[in-house]
Structure formats: C-alpha cells, structure tokens
Amino acid sequence: MTSQPLGDHHDTAVVVAHEIYGVNDHIAGVAKLLHRYRCDVFTPSFLPSGVVYSRDDEPRAYREFMRAPGVLNMSDTLVQFTEGLRGRYRRVLCIGFSVGATSAWLASSTGAVDGAVCFYGSRIRDHLDAQPAAPCLVVFAEQETGFSAPAVAERLAGRRNVVTEVYPCSHGFCDPGSPHYSAEHGHQAWHSATRFLGLSR
C-alpha cells in the first residue's frame, strides 16, 4: 500500500482512516483541512484496488467491506502503515471515521500511533477491552442505530488515555456530504480534535 503525503515533510504525520466508502470526497476534504496545519497528511485506501463507493451504494459498500478487509484486517494494515512512517516523523497521528475510527481505536492499543481521534466508531463497542497506549479522543454521535452511544461513552469514562465526547447528532455529522451533517457540531468536533492532537496552524 502506498499513499503520497499532502504536505512538505513536516515532523508530524497524520493518517486519515476512511469509512466503508473508501477515499471519497469527504476524506479528501479532511486531508485538505489538515494540510492547513503543520503536518503531512496520508490518505491510504484500505479497500481492494482502492475502490471508492458512492453513498447511494451503502449496502454494497458495507457488504464488500465486511468481506474484505473487515475492521480487524484494516486495523492491522493501519498499524503496518503507521510503523512505516516511524523513521520519518517525530509524531504519527491518526484520525478515523466510522470503521476507520474503530480501526484507529484498535491500532492505538498497539502503540502504533502517538495520538488518535475516532469519529463515530460505532464498533468500538465490540472492542472495549482495548486500551490505548497513547491519547485517544472518541467522538460519538448521540443518535446511533442499534446501540446507545452515551452508554458506551460512559463505559469508557475514566479510562487511561481516553477522552470521550458525545454530540447531539446522528452518525456522519462531520461529513458535509452526509444527510446527517451538522455544520455547527461538525465544526465544534473538528476544533476539539485538532486541539486534542496538538495541531497548530
């Protein structure tokens, strides 16, 4: 897997871990936002052949993601990718969305990153035994299908290296292309994330 960075070789690398759709417009937009900070940004595709699905094709995207790579394999590949950056950067950070957030959560428990932000990683609830080795901000949407995000956040409260935030929104609220996008709360969450990771312009 290769991914050319967006940046001019700063001392901090940020890896953006995508959703089931792959490296779509949202992930490209996140990379552009991060480029304003003093970091190099990587947006590797963890999907076979780098395929990108449209939001209208969500059932197929979900089905194909679960077939390959799946969350555990994506996390393993994310760990390998970040380890490949270690010799080139003083800090290696990760920002993940949905399945990418759960993968980042798992990767953070291996010591592969120096900090992570996990946006609405609903499957984190299946991996509550993971213990991040570096600071990890877990951002939940309050309205999730199939589980109580506030209840999961409460279970994570007080854990070493873990900070949780719950926004009164639905899954995808940080994505301008999502029907659940909230400009107000998306902006708040983004500001919180960059501050948490110690990124400055």
Please specify the SSE layout and strand pairing.
Elements: E1 12-17, H1 25-34, E2 40-42, H2 58-67, H3 70-83, E3 91-97, H4 99-108, E4 115-119, E5 136-143, H5 149-156, E6 162-170, H6 183-196
Parallel strand pairs: 1-2, 1-3, 3-4, 4-5, 5-6
Q: Can you put this structure into words, describing what you see?
A:
The protein is of the alpha/beta class and 201 residues long. The protein has one domain (12-196): Rossmann fold, CATH 3.40.50. 33% of the residues lie in helices and 19% in strands. It contains 6 helices and 6 strands; from the N terminus they run E-H-E-H-H-E-H-E-E-H-E-H. The chain has helices spanning 25-34, 58-67, 70-83, 99-108, 149-156, 183-196; strands spanning 12-17, 40-42, 91-97, 115-119, 136-143, 162-170. The protein has a 6-stranded parallel β-sheet, sandwiched between helices. Strand 5, helix 5 (149-156) and strand 6 (162-170) form a beta-alpha-beta unit. Helix 3 packs across helix 4 (99-108). The longest helix is centred in the middle third of the chain and has 14 residues, at 70-83.
Indicate the proportion of strand residues: 15-25%
Count of the domains:
1
Q: How many H/I helices? A: 6
CATH class annotation = Alpha Beta
- Average pLDDT level: 95
Give me the CATH superfamily: Alpha/Beta hydrolase fold, catalytic domain
CATH architecture: 3-Layer(aba) Sandwich
* Biggest sheet character: 6 strands, parallel
| Helical percentage | 25-40%
Strand order of the largest sheet: 2-1-3-4-5-6
According to CATH, the fold-level topology is Rossmann fold
| Poorly predicted segments | none
